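Reply to dn_fold:

You asked what the input looked like. This is it:
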Amino acid sequence: SLPDNDLTEFDLLASRLSREANLTEAQARNLIERFGTDWEKLLNEAYFLKELEGRLGQE
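and this is what came back:
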């Protein structure tokens, strides 16, 4: 398991990502777990996820 200080950083990143990309905190955490902590990569994946959700919602 991660040390506490890493977890805090993870939490901060997850809440920032959920805010900026309009995701749930759970979605944000999932993306970080899958793609790591590269901010640009996370934003790209987040927007892709939202686009996918939008398409699914229209069907």
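The mean pLDDT is 90.
Hope that clears it up.
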